[in-house]
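Supplementary Note 2. Why include the ligand at all?

Several targets in our set were suspected to adopt different conformations when bound, so apo predictions alone were not considered sufficient. For every target with a known small-molecule partner we therefore ran a joint prediction. The input for flavin-adenine dinucleotide is given below.
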Amino acid sequence: MNEQKIQEIHVVGAGLAGSEVAWQLVKKGHKVVIHEMKRIKKSPVHTSNLFAELVCSNSLKSMDLKNAEGLLKEEMRLFGSLILDCAMENRVPAGKALAVDREKFAKCVTEKLLKTGLVEVVDEEVKEPGSEGIWVIATGPTTDGELAEWIKKVTGGVLNFFDAVAPIISAESINMDVCYVADRYGVGSGDYINCPMNKEQYEAFWEAIVNAEVVEMDDFDRKLLFERCQPIEEIARSGKDAMRYGPLRPVGLRDPKTGKEPYAVVQLRKENVEGTMYNLVGFQTRLKWGEQLRIIRMIPGLENAEILRYGVMHRNSYIESPKVLDKFLRLKSDPRIFFAGQITGVEGYVESAMTGLYVGLNIARLVEGKEMVEFPRKTMCGALIDYITSAHELKPMYANFGLIGGGKNREKVAQKALEEMKQFIESTGEKHIEGGI
Ligand SMILES: Cc1cc2nc3c(=O)[nH]c(=O)nc-3n(C[C@H](O)[C@H](O)[C@H](O)COP(=O)(O)OP(=O)(O)OC[C@H]3O[C@@H](n4cnc5c(N)ncnc54)[C@H](O)[C@@H]3O)c2cc1C
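The joint prediction is reproduced in token form.
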């Protein structure tokens, strides 16, 4: 490949991820071409022409180190994250959360990038990357049109448009005095944890589900939803016994404590190889988050369930990163092309920015002739990158301690992760340049 041309770096989409990619490059003196379509065409969720627009809440979630989101931020700050620097500069009071004035925040990101003089902005809707140079696709969860078609082509037709995720809970919050390990008819290697219900418990649970509050959705989403899979509350509404003949069927799941099959069983399946996270099988749901917590805690053995990730059902485009991307978020089939942001399978503003930081940092290394580097696995950033590039069945994921494991003392886990990240920075020479450039 032509050495001169490969130095050209193009970022498609100046959202949370794309802006962070560009920042990690310009602060090291590299030029970046940003291709952003907002001035010509806006996605259904964007309204301003500024970079890094927060499309919904103005909160970047917790700053508390005992919270996974807090740890994620603290790790990113070690690298001089533009998104976090601007968030801190434009903070509005919100307790332990990092909430921002969204207009000032987006202005800050846009101005800091443009002020460097190293960013060229091309106002266009990119339909596919150019044939030369390095390209980063950071077009977010609403990617559509010709670019989506191109992505489908290069990723083997995989671009999910619907996100139906069952809640995920931490393994350590499951009461194994009540639940038991068993595979249906004994076929398997102890992959499932089962929560047994008697008739009374099942009926109370059914009653609670059919009366719980759900998140409303528009007709387009409703149609997609029913084409794909039924939420648990819809199954429940179709009849009192529907759940126990469906996802809660107990056949072949004898409880070793009684020697009998229970009346109904909620099955939990490992979400990660380490077995620190479990999902509720067949529980894709539109229930409001508060309702999910209340109802899940009615399940015998899950009275103290810690929900790591709530169930959701909504439109969301993301690729099957474990299949098509390498550890550096490059297309396996064309390593000139990187992906960053929510489209890689992370979920959330800060998580999206983090993947941008990772990609920007590694592209800088690449063009400087250095080895690319992977974040340590026991940091929140590293655990998230590891998850989206190796999950057996990728589900959009936000930061949570289940990804790292390491015990219930979150403060200790967080301190260890931060130490690891500092050592990583030291050993790779990735010094944080205070205040950028
Ligand atoms: C409706 C909705 C609400 C959300 N609410 C929250 C929330 O409250 N909290 C939270 O943490 N997360 C939320 N998210 C999830 C996620 O964090 C955000 O979507 C986040 O903005 C993703 O960052 P990103 O950089 O990947 O994409 P985006 O921020 O969406 O940026 C993508 C950019 O690419 C541009 N673009 C797209 N296609 C092209 C093209 N072909 N050519 C050129 N430019 C293009 C777009 O104009 C946009 O500027 C929400 C998502 C959605 C869809």
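The domain at 165-315 is CATH 2.40.30.260 (Elongation Factor Tu (Ef-tu); domain 3). DSSP finds 15 helices and 17 strands in the chain. Comparable summaries for the other entries are listed in the accompanying table.
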